[in-house]
């Protein structure tokens, strides 16, 4: 069955399988809430189109696939997330969903199917999903440590101003005066974030793409907190970090990007923006999630200082069609 998010009841059944599997396999289930996900799938966005497939027998949903069709950056790739209800595994459900997804990818002219296994063991990265991926001809391209931090935490000791820089903070929209430079930093992030051997075409951000992404997050019910550092002498926006969540899942917050412009690295700006952003966003008990390549040692060191610990390893896979 094709799923496009427009029928809330169909979407709820689809979502229940997708999120149910995450709850079953992850100590800290992560992902969008049902409405947040439905708005993403049913709406039109500048950077991605999402839709889904369900393998349904009568009234029973056996398994689902969520497909992300990138419209900027990796436009050769379709990203597929498969989830099969535990009682219907090892019966070829995921293989059938993958076959349909591949047929659609070919019809759309895509060259690569990619997927992420979220549930890998923190040390080995292995899971049912990695066994499936290997069996179906995918190659492992990258790994990221999933780290969590239980909030609230006292960050006052870590909030140290850096000489020559001042902080600016904003919520859902980047202020017009910073938009031009913020676009440069987002593009820098897309270029510099370690992606291992993944096929990765950096996104060239534009003010229009930023405004579109901001509007989508608001439509999804998300809130976003940004702290950036400005180099006072030059007026350059030197670093930023973003964290967010939704009232739909108040116990779960996400650390999104943290980026320091190349010419401003080595000055402690990573922690200088993260600590006050964390202070601003934390209102009570919640778990903050973040993912980083194990080789991204500076970022992992900053996270460890803040108290993050590793709980899983996610791995990214690709199959060339
Ligand atoms: C991974 C997952 C989607 C597989 O679904 P499935 O319907 O059981 O997969 P299939 O029956 O099509 O399996 C095809 C082949 O993959 C391999 N495989 C699948 N699960 C495996 C497991 N737990 N251990 C070892 N091999 C496995 C086998 O080679 C299998 O063929 P076989 O049963 O003839 O030996 C399912 O276990 C799941 O939902 N896991 C949690 C979510 C996840 O990891 N998703 C993948 C991320 S995109």
Automatic annotation (TrEMBL):
<dbReference type="Pfam" id="PF00583">
    <property type="entry name" value="Acetyltransf_1"/>
</dbReference>
<protein>
    <submittedName>
        <fullName>GNAT family N-acetyltransferase</fullName>
    </submittedName>
</protein>
<dbReference type="GO" id="GO:0016747">
    <property type="term" value="F:acyltransferase activity, transferring groups other than amino-acyl groups"/>
</dbReference>
<dbReference type="InterPro" id="IPR016181">
    <property type="entry name" value="Acyl_CoA_acyltransferase"/>
</dbReference>
<feature type="domain" description="N-acetyltransferase">
    <location>
        <begin position="1"/>
        <end position="184"/>
    </location>
</feature>
<dbReference type="InterPro" id="IPR000182">
    <property type="entry name" value="GNAT_dom"/>
</dbReference>
<keyword id="KW-0808">Transferase</keyword>
